[in-house]
Automatic annotation (TrEMBL):
Superkingdom: Bacteria
Name of this protein: ComF family protein
Family: Belongs to the ComF/GntX family.
Length: 231
């Protein structure tokens, strides 16, 4: 980048920060994208076992869905805060390494695919991006042997699940996750399924079934936050 372009970009960034001061997406603290306290909400990987997903691949969550973690995720997903993709992707990368180490016997030594859960096409258009795909691709940069496979999509009949109870979420998604055959990993390639929020488990179950039907095993699931009830 030339010095002139760099100067113009720096000036533009300074003007934006002056007019719209940077604030932490979790707590509003000035001068931070995600402050240490809010970032810490995503720092401890934990195993979750919602009854609806039993039996299922191991599910791991970086945070409990609520408070600061919820505000940060909504800011990234719905609020246009693309600056959160960097810090969140860094935490995803650390979590993926931990999960692969824990499940080394299932993963083996070959390539692994990180498969983002699909969003409705209308939601992607509204947000201007597929946020999980972007997070996965940023996370893979520091993960040798791991690549993102954007190989799932939702049927047009699947509607927005906001406001649906557990039974209706499962009914809404039943058979609604489809594979993009031209993007599928080779059969037998171990997959780590990646989603933002675990609510009822409907998305995880339907993604797993779609991949299993294509001969691709899901060895574990990573979610940014868990909102599901636990026993």
């Amino acid at each position: 980048m030339s010095s002139d372009r760099w100067a113009k970009r720096s000036a533009a960034a300074g003007l934006v920060n002056l007019l719209l001061p940077l604030r932490c997406a979790g707590c509003g603290l000035a001068g931070f994208v995600l402050c240490a306290g809010c970032g810490g909400r995503f720092a401890e990987l934990r195993r979750v076992r919602p009854p609806e997903l039993s039996p299922a691949p191991p599910v791991h969550a970086l945070a409990r869905y609520g408070g600061r973690a919820r505000r940060a995720l909504l800011a990234c997903k719905e609020g246009g805060r693309r600056d959160l993709e960097g810090p969140l992707a860094a935490r995803v990368a650390v979590a993926v390494r931990e999960i692969l180490d824990e499940h080394a016997a299932l993963v083996g030594t070959g390539p692994v695919r990180l498969v983002p859960a699909p969003s409705r096409a209308a939601a992607v258009r509204r947000r201007g991006r597929a946020h999980l795909v972007r997070l996965a691709r940023r996370a893979e940069r520091g993960l040798p042997g791991v690549r993102t496979a954007d190989c799932l999509r939702l049927s047009p009949r699947v509607r927005d699940s906001v406001g649906l109870d557990s039974a209706r979420r499962f009914e809404n998604l039943r058979g609604g996750v489809l594979v993009r055959t031209n993007r599928l990993p080779p059969p037998g390639t171990p997959v780590l399924l990646f989603d933002d929020v675990l609510t009822t488990g409907a998305t995880v179950l339907n993604c797993r079934e779609a991949l299993a039907g294509a001969g691709v095993p899901v060895v574990a699931v990573l979610v940014l936050a868990n909102a599901a009830r636990e026993p």
